[in-house]
Amino acid sequence: MNPRFAQIETLALHAGQPHDPQTGAVIPPISLSTTFAQEAPGRHKGFDYSRSDNPTRRMLEQCVAALEGGTHALAFASGCAAAASVMQTLEPGSHVVACDDVYGGTFRLLEHVFRNYGIETTWVDLTSLGSLHDALRPETRLVWTETPTNPLLRVVDIAAVSAVARAHGALLCVDNTFATPVLQRPLALGADVVVHSTTKYLNGHSDSVGGVVVTHDAQLHQRLRFLQKSLGAVPSPFDCFLVLRGLKTLPVRIERHCGNATRLARWLSAQPGVDKVIYPGLADHPQHTLAAEQMKAPGGMLSFVLGGGRTAADRLLGALELLACAESLGGVESLIEHPASMTHAGLPPALRARLGIDEGLVRVSVGLEAESDLREDLRAGLDRAREP
Ligand code: PLP
């Protein structure tokens, strides 16, 4: 695509997806073939076998690379497979410093899979640069963070953390699933690698599981590409098509997710029974200023704490009609969940308590419904949660 057209709204629609040269189809056909005829042994048109490379997957990879401002991207069968591929680039004996408030599956990978292969992780609050410095070891090769974090929505200073990691000779990987490249581009802030669960905002319609890894480091990309082909956790062409279709509306969806979340966060802050609302767009959020500088808008995720604890949370989630009680996030429809018993149930209880994932905490993925309808549903649920 002509580099003159570099705005994210335009890239989301067109990057990596030229009109089909044979038919002129504006939406390129989904390339289902598993294999590709070769003119002579070893001489082909750039594709030989679909696990190694596939035309629809390549379009998705090029589109996400353009959105993140990276030079290379690789698509995987899930966000966890994408994360695992980055971890698999580490040698046994390497050390990782990871943010202590991450998706439970990332914790599971580092603690219960990669530790068995000699890769040790220290979990720290990466909003504190002092904690990062204290955790670094001579063998630290990777710093891993999400921002905003999950489910406590802490905001990590990507530029500051990347400077510390770089000075130490470690790579910084940012899981950009919550913010998306519409709100922040970690590579431009100094990160070396970005991962996404495309299952969430990038696809945006809760109908495809996938992941991507983006970088501008050609050597790292080659290693990741080797792992993608060797381990084979690749997405189907149809899933790649779904994400490509979802990406077209990503900028407009994110704008509305953020608008709805901002209004709901303010409204929730004034509701009886709600002890605390956690949203980077609220002035009382501990990293409110950083969020305003680092992100274009505060995002579509918010969490809040019910004074009535687990009983109130169970009642609220049981009473809602519009917001579905479900794991996952980033789809057009609003979802609500209870991290302590759902997404973060796998964390040791002591770690959950230390982080502040208490029994009254609920997390909302604010969707695109009319905000007044969301309020109406939550109002009824909160009334139910306060019943004696
Ligand atoms: N990263 C984040 C921030 C997530 O929330 C999730 C899943 O919820 C993942 C990664 C893992 O993605 P997937 O479920 O596509 O494997």
Explained architecture:
This protein is α/β, with parallel strands linked by helices. The protein is built from 14 helices and 12 strands. A 7-stranded mixed sheet has the order 1-7-6-5-4-2-3, with helices on both faces. The chain has a 5-stranded mixed sheet with strand order 8-9-12-11-10. Strand 2 (95-99), helix 4 and strand 3 form a beta-alpha-beta unit. It starts with 7 loop residues before the first helix and ends with a helix. The protein binds pyridoxal-5'-phosphate.
Note the topology.
Blueprint: H1 8-14, H2 55-68, E1 72-76, H3 79-87, E2 95-99, H4 104-113, E3 120-124, H5 129-135, E4 140-146, H6 158-168, E5 171-175, H7 180-183, E6 193-197, E7 211-215, H8 218-231, H9 237-247, H10 250-269, E8 274-278, H11 288-294, E9 301-306, H12 309-319, E10 324-325, E11 335-337, H13 349-355, E12 361-365, H14 371-386
Parallel strand pairs: 2-3, 2-4, 4-5, 5-6, 10-11
Antiparallel strand pairs: 1-7, 6-7, 8-9, 9-12, 11-12
Helix pairs in contact: 1-2, 2-9, 3-4, 12-14
The structure holds pyridoxal-5'-phosphate (PLP).
Quaternary structure of the protein: single chain
**Structure annotation, total helices:** 14
For the largest sheet, list the strands in their spatial order: 1-7-6-5-4-2-3
> How many distinct beta strands?
12
Major beta-sheet overview: 7 strands, mixed
- What percent strand? 5-15%
* Secondary structure: helix percent: 25-40%
